[in-house]
Amino acid sequence: MFGCLVAGRLVQTDAVQVAADKFVFNLPDYESVNHVVVFMLGTVPFPAGMGGAVYFSFPDPESGGQVWQLLGFIANDKPSAIFKISGLKAGQGAGSHHPFGTVAAAAPSVAQVGVSVEPLEQLAQQTPVSGAAATTADTLRLFTQKMLDSLYNFASSFAVTQAQMAPDPSETFVPSSCIVKWYDSFQRRMNQNPNFWKN
Question: Which class for 107: exposed (0-12), middle (13-18), buried (19 or more C-beta within 10 A)?
């Protein structure tokens, strides 16, 4: 019914059913995982009015137990979601209620992703742990900044002073200050409206 995907790894469809309405995926070497995608396989829809709360659990070295945190949910009209799990800490929402009881992890370096089938009304009232949502705007902003940094660094590697320039009628030169002005303008517009480039 569900799948779990981590970049650079095979898709997991081998969820362990721990109760009639609860499923768990094991995530080995979770410390190296930044984002996880949870999705419906498309073979079995949720019953009407139901969805799946998605939880993340990792070992707590202080208590020796597991810390469960609500990431968000999936539903028939939202069959997949990307969650950011890097940076989640034990103190962040650790005391929140979770429906999984004591599901033992396979090893200390193994985290778990759980899906609990619950009414949509209940899912809408739950608050996911802060920082778990991998928003498109943040991802796009980060990508754009990295791309602009790369462009500027690449173009700067070819910089020469006017005294060093050799006359070449087939070459056009652009002052680096022009790229810096464009870069600053683009970042300012991106911060105001991450989707401005779509217009």
Answer: exposed
